[in-house]
Amino acid sequence: MSFFNKMLASVGIGSAKVDTKLESDTVAPGGEIRGVVEIQGGNVEQRIDDIYLSLNTTYVKESDDKKYTVSGLIDRFRLTESFVLMANEKKVIPFSFLLPIDTPISIGKTKVWIATGLDIKNAVDPTDKDYLRVVPNELMDSVLQAMGGLGFRLREAECEQAPHRLRRRLPFIQEFEFIPTSGPYRGRLDELEITFLPISNTDTEIWMQVDRKVRGLGSLFSEALNMDESNIRFTVNRGDIPYMQQKIQSIIQSYA
User: Fold this and answer.
1) Does residue 14 carry a pLDDT above 70?
2) Which Pfam families does this one have (predicted)?
3) Residue 227 and residue 230: Cα distance in Å, rounded?
4) Alpha-carbon distance 244 to 53, whole Å?
5) Most confident of 56-70, 136-150, 225-239
6) Are 51 and 80 spatial neighbours (Cβ–Cβ below 8 Å)?
7) Going by C-beta distance under 8 Å and a sequence separation of 6 or more, which residues neighbour residue 198?
8) What is the pLDDT of residue 10?
9) 186: which DSSP letter?
10) CB atoms within 10 A of CB 49
């Protein structure tokens, strides 16, 4: 390669292009993602130091009483060792990986995407971005269906910076905020929040915040002191699925 072509490659002119193609863009946490990464060489030979897939979302962070949205890395997967991509050469690299069980689902304001990048020394890093449709797994879906069966409507779902008591592998959690629109808790609860804290594909811990409706002067004082809220942690597993609505109702009933 001539010195001039090397210089062109180092500033990203005539360089490689990358395109990721997924077999399916719909997956549940813990499910498998499969596809190929297609790399098209440019006008010059280039050394590819790394090919990686990064799984990302955004979440709301708070600092100095201000809220702002930042990107959050869920996981990163390296696909190949270093290699030389010849001019105009095309490579197709298959891949598969399991979506982490703590990946947020695509609902409300939450978006999840895969970014594909080539690590090219001294050059512009070409990237490709592909959005996923992350759907609830069987256990999560059972809990969400149970909430609907009890008369709750999902008002909002959003990823937020995790408080220390709920922080695990990731710096954020996904909160599901429900309001009672019918059923036994309409008029008794203001809202109810749920956060899934997965343990495995078959078990998940749930953090639930129950916000009772204000009634009378005593309740007004309770609300001022945040005593009208109860924080509950419990675990559900696949064996609970046939009876999920009854299980959740019995837990809410103790705090409503």
Assistant:
1) no
2) Spo0M (PF07070)
3) 8
4) 36
5) 136-150
6) yes
7) 29, 101, 102, 204, 205
8) 38
9) B
10) 14
CB 166 within 8 A of CB 55: no
Instruction: Compute the distance between CA of residue 83 and CA of residue 180 in angstroms, rounded to an integer.
Output: 57
- What whole-number distance in Å separates Cα of residue 240 and Cα of residue 227? 30
pTM: 0.84
Where does the pLDDT of residue 125 fall: very low under 50, low under 70, confident under 90, or very high at 90 and above?
low
Residue 240 token pair: 């609970």
The domains of the chain are located at 3-134, 138-253
Phi/psi of residue 163, nearest 5 degrees: -65, 155
CATH class (in words) of the domain with range 3-134: mainly beta
Tokens of 57: 């979302």
Task: Check: CB of residue 235 under 8 Å from CB of residue 203.
Answer: yes
Residue 254, C-beta contacts closer than 8 angstroms, at least 6 positions apart: none
pLDDT greater at residue 255 or residue 156: 156
Residues in a beta bridge with 120: 48
